[in-house]
Amino acid sequence: MAAWDFDDTLATTKSNVIFNKGGETKVVSAEDFASQGADLIAEGWVPDFSEFNKVTGGKPGPMFDNAMKRAKKYGTEDTFILTARSPDSAVAIKEFLDALGLNIPIENITGLANSTGEAKAMWLLDKHAQGYNDIAFADDALQNVDAVRKVFDEFDIKGKVEQAKAKFSQDVEATFVEQMLVEGQ
Asked: Using CA atoms, how far apart are residues 22 and 19, in angstroms rounded to an integer?
């Protein structure tokens, strides 16, 4: 099976999580939610996922092409989206991926409403207990990659764990070209 994170792995979006605490509000991006969400909740901040349940300004992420290649080779019956977003986001994620040609069954899109690596590791451990014995996992958040790798090692689960990263050279080149256009060169 393959399990892909959504934000900053299969897609980049402008969706945010709104946190509230004692009359204060914090707006946290998808990228920052992956690294800060659990800490904010532990500090008493209450998440509002209403905006995060939509795919706002979505574009293919750094692992999207890999997911498409895998889908063409193996199909999508054993392909899963495992996201820190809430379960209510599944419909929007499905619609976004379908529009790009990646048709993953809606029942294979899991919103944990939990940004910890441990939550993703336990979900994957459960899939292993259901009979999946070769699991590929990709996520942009290093703490999630590390937590899953630790569980795979501890339980001798065969598979591949990979961190999704934007291609630095493409980002630098795009920024350089944009700057040159702004400067009129």
From this structure: 10
141 has a pLDDT exceeding 70: yes
Please check the confidence at residue 108 and state whether its pLDDT lies above 60.
yes
Instruction: Decide: 53 and 90 in contact? Cβ < 8 Å.
Output: no
Query: 62: which 2 tokens?
Result: 């750094």
83 burial (CB, 10 Å; 0-12 / 13-18 / 19+) is buried
Looking at the predicted structure, is the pLDDT value of residue 176 above 50?
no
Rounded Cα distance between 176 and 179, Å, is 5
pLDDT over threshold 90, residue 52: no
Confidence of residue 167 (pLDDT cuts 50, 70, 90): low
Q: Of 10, 20, 5, which Cα lies nearest the Cα of 51?
A: 20
Instruction: Reply yes or no on whether the pLDDT at 185 is more than 50.
Output: no
Nearest residue to 142 (alpha-carbon basis) of 113, 168, 124, 162? 162
Q: Exposed/middle/buried for 182, CB within 10 Å: 0-12, 13-18, 19+?
A: exposed
